[in-house]
Amino acid sequence: MTDAVLYKKQRVPPFMRQLLAVSGVVLYMIGTGANIAYPGVLLEQLRQPESTLKITSEHESWIASILGLALITGIVVAPFSLQHLGRRVTNQLSTLPSMGGWALMVTAKGPTALLIGRSLQGFGMGVQAASAPVSIAEYSAPKHRGAFLATIAFSFATGMLVAHIFGTLLYWRTAGVACGSFYAVSLILISLSPETPPYLASKGLYTECRKSFRWFRGYDHVSEKELNILLNSQKREISVTTGPRWRHYIDIAKRQEFYKPTVIMMFMFILFQISGMTVVPSYTVPMMKEVTGGAIESYTSMLMVDVLRFATAILACIVVNKLNRRTVLFLGVTISVASLFLTSILLYLRDFGYIPDEYKWVPIIPTMFYIFGKTLGILPIPWAIAGEIFPLAYRSLGSGISGMFLSIMFFVVVKTAPASFRDIGVSGTFCVYAFCISLCGIFLYFLLPETKGKTLYEIECHFKNTNANIKDSSENDRMLELEKIETGRDEGE
């Protein structure tokens, strides 16, 4: 079987196939961004005197934060689903509770239905939080993986912008229908793509793995070498994973290629949440009202934040693919910390009367730099690293454990935000966020390796402290010829 014949069979370029598969996950994450930002407009509409659905301030904090608790249940389920059902089925199933949650919310007659609907959304988000980075990384070629993983940040920003625009222009029930439609389209696109090659290889389905790999990646010399390495490494991995299940998990916990990435991702997701990533979309209106001192209309400032976040997320897709992961992350950390401290100082100066009334809007300038910094580096890099850093053998388990910290921090940060804004103000809250970002950044500076441009197997070997070149070049060439012969036999059958 010649290269020319195989190239003819692939009328759709590999990049477009990868883009199709990634798009299904991206649309789901747009829905996730809408889930996070929706309370920002929902609660404002429900506070209006003419609203027929009445809620208390306690209801408000639970509606915004209950996603974090529900995320935990989804993340607990995700590793088992990813391991036993696969990436594709897990992605498909995760859309169902999310669509059900939106359906329940748009028909809600009281706060209980809103909370149940938000819980269903959070469960689906939890499953997808573990599945999305793993799926995108396994769909993608190394040269495209950074940009594709950065689309998670783009998706969040797009969903937040869409939810706030819909919520500003439409009645909250109508806006809910529009936001929920993203999941239906996501389900269709996910269903059009095959299972990821690494998952098929991990299950010993080598023929299916080769077909899926070539569907996504085409047929060229470099890709075939990567395919051979994937197959050979999994054949060895499967041969040694015998014995009692509990002993297997204890053995995993002792391996540095498991606990090192897990600790890194714990700090990554703590950084993600403590930077205000989910607080700002949920409480944009009251937060920006205090930052601007009422000089700019609340909904206008909210849309300013959303547009900046959206534009920066687009820039991040380019930057993450061009620059080193560490460079982008620490650039975002530096800008965010400096901007948060500067905003706090300006707010304190304004409160003590050192800034004239005509300039009381000035704190919005460093606030917008803060939005830029966290969207450029803190938003995309944790998700990019999450899809790359865990070895295939326990990628599902590692994603679930690290995702648990994401969900716990989501709940803690969003639930405590109203009390924090009330008791120490936006200025004090920003100081706390800046200090925590700095602390996480210091730990990650010493722990996080560079992953840009490396194959998933090379990253795995980094944590194992082994050589990624499991065979020399001549042996790889020999294996390539054997695989061609075997593939011809498979297709002949």
UniProtKB/TrEMBL annotation:
Pfam families with a match to the protein in the record: Sugar_tr
PROSITE patterns named among the record's database cross-references: MFS
InterPro entries with a match to the protein in the record: MFS_dom, MFS_sugar_transport-like, MFS_trans_sf, MFS_Trehalose_Transporter, Sugar/inositol_transpt
Coiled coil stretches, renumbered: none
Residue ranges annotated for the Major facilitator superfamily (MFS) profile domain, each copy included: 19-452
SUPFAM superfamilies with a match to the protein in the record: MFS general substrate transporter (SSF103473)
Name of the molecule in the record: Facilitated trehalose transporter Tret1-like
Major location category of this protein: membrane
Organism: Galleria mellonella
Membrane topology annotation: Multi-pass membrane protein
Subcellular location: Membrane
Gene: LOC113514695
The keyword Plastid belongs to this UniProt entry's keyword annotation: no
Keywords: Glycoprotein, Membrane, Transmembrane, Transmembrane helix
Transmembrane segments: 20-41, 61-82, 147-166, 172-192, 263-283, 303-321, 328-349, 361-385, 392-414, 426-448
